Amino acid sequence: MPYNKNMYTTGYYKEPGPKLDEESPFESMLERFRFAAEVLELDEGMFQYLASPVKQVTVSIPIVMDSGDIRVFEGYRVIHNNLLGPSKGGIRYAPDVTLEEVNALAAWMTWKCAIVNVPFGGAKGGVRVDPKQLSDGELERLTRRYTANMLEVFGPDRDIPAPDMNTNEQIMAWVMDTYSMNAHKTETAVVTGKPIILGGSHGRKEATGRGVVTVTLAALNKMGILPNKCTVAVQGFGNVGSVSAKLMYEQGAKVVAISDISGGYYNENGIDIPAAIEYAKENDNSLEGYPEAEKISNEELLQMECDVLIPAAKEDQINRENAGNINAKIIAEGANGPVTANADSILEDKGIMVVPDILANAGGVTVSYFEWVQDRQGYFWTEERVNRRLNRMMRNAFDNLFEVRNEYDITLRQAAYVFGINKVAMTLKLRGLYA
Ligand SMILES: NC(=O)C1=CN([C@@H]2O[C@H](COP(=O)(O)OP(=O)(O)OC[C@H]3O[C@@H](n4cnc5c(N)ncnc54)[C@H](O)[C@@H]3O)[C@@H](O)[C@H]2O)C=CC1
Ligand SMILES: O=C(O)CCC(=O)C(=O)O
């Protein structure tokens, strides 16, 4: 791999650089991509090719509300790249999701799949809706209509969705059923993250958090910190955050702070995570009013002194404004894009090891791959087998990136982009580009 050390010791990357739009995850993605492209000496054409999504689909989703009124929502699916195989990535329901954000999330999926070595390209979907405002019936109609609008995009050999923020296994079951009705056969492999009874995989629900913890333990080991001697703060208490917190707790770590959209909860003696999970389950998935802790703000959580900070909520949480105040030794990115590109060099200067999203949260897509394989074979694995293979693949990915990091004296995030983009670029070269 071509390498010129001066490029990033004296180049634009170390300078304050052009002010990026903190609100733009796509710009954050591109900024890191540019750096990797320089390291790899990608030519301009290759850069443009890999930076551009293959397909962007925007649909309107009209549904009849329980009141009898019609409302129209906007939905997206972006296929960023499918050189390595069918595209793969979750569907997000959020009132503020944009096509631009989905573009970034889809590109991250491309690099992520390359890093964990699963034979998929990258995609992501989104619907601009606050699902909490919909009844179950409205949510089902919305999901079915979105899927119907994407029938030509989705497919077990084309594009395979999965859960992301505010979507879950019930929503995946509706996607599978709608697609199957139109295919005139049951097509379980069209979507992953389904209920186990419908062809889902053991371990998928916990896979992202489990992967976060595997790489966190590897990072702690590199720093010579024992898991049972470390303190942890977790932002976000949904699928990824709650499982990461629970598995760190089971490792003997002291999880001193957790948070969700209702705010942060701090206990210097450590929070009883199984009890907090039970509390959230009984309170409509919210920590609001959690009694065994002092209420703090999400900002206070991010800035508290701890060994491991796991941002597992959403993008742009650690940015140019607050990066200088982060007091963790390791940041393990459970969420996609929780640290902006503007914050990267600030964290690097503080000596904080960032385990980047495209490695740290890749456990989800890894077990989605296992689910797809199981569905296609019609032969299902035990949870023990799933977890063992997941741990192995995450650990291998961590070791590969650590090697690139050491070889080029770059950060783990830079190594992740270099590794992932190199693999996709090499695939393109071998496949060729003549239509
Ligand atoms: N579910 C999965 O398998 C995967 C998810 N991810 C990423 O992990 C992140 C979280 O996803 P999930 O856990 O699936 O979503 P989720 O919908 O299950 O949970 C999201 C959590 O974040 C909290 N939250 C939202 N805004 C917040 C804010 N401003 N401050 C603090 N907390 C806030 C919510 O209250 C909730 O507890 C997202 O970035 C997603 O893209 C990444 C890989 C796979
Ligand atoms: O499980 C999958 O296919 C994708 C999960 C996802 O959306 C992500 O890793 O961001």
From TrEMBL:
Family annotation (InterPro entries): Aminoacid_DH-like_N_sf, Glu/Leu/Phe/Val/Trp_DH, Glu/Leu/Phe/Val/Trp_DH_C, Glu/Leu/Phe/Val/Trp_DH_dimer, Glu/Leu/Phe/Val_DH_AS, Glu_DH, NAD(P)-bd_dom_sf, NAD_bind_Glu_DH
GO molecular function terms listed in the Swiss-Prot or TrEMBL record: glutamate dehydrogenase (NAD+) activity; nucleotide binding
Alphabetic keyword roster: NAD, Nucleotide-binding, Oxidoreductase
Positions bound to NAD(+): 208, 239
Active site per the UniProt annotation: 124 (proton donor)
SUPFAM superfamilies named among the record's database cross-references: Aminoacid dehydrogenase-like, N-terminal domain, NAD(P)-binding Rossmann-fold domains
UniProt binding sites for substrate: 88, 112, 368
An annotated GO BP: L-glutamate catabolic process
Gene3D superfamilies given in the database record: Leucine Dehydrogenase, chain A, domain 1, NAD(P)-binding Rossmann-like Domain
Domain Glutamate/phenylalanine/leucine/valine/L-tryptophan dehydrogenase C-terminal: start-end pairs: 201-432
Chain positions of site Important for catalysis: 164
CDD domains per UniProt: NAD_bind_1_Glu_DH (cd01076)
Protein name stated in the entry: Glutamate dehydrogenase
Species annotation: Fodinibius salipaludis
